[in-house]
Design brief:
elongated
Length: 94
Amino acid sequence: MTLTKNHLINSISNHLSIPKIRSAALFETLIVTIKDALESGENVMISGFGKFSVQNKNERRVRNPATGEDLMLESRRVVRFKCSGRLRKRMNGD
């Protein structure tokens, strides 16, 4: 099962005993804060969960496997996630 935005909002609402509209606002604020930090190039570290970081990828030559055509991918920024040791241990049953 995929954990969706709606599942997270419902979970916040149930755990904090607050209306769903309020938990949706809290969730949206959190997501906007994380997006803004990543967009400005900052890392986002959530203790016990992991670290989101922005990596720069250089321009590179690739080949389209369907046509064999050579292409150039533009340089871009990507978001990487590295889970914390605590989360890794919990996922592996340690």
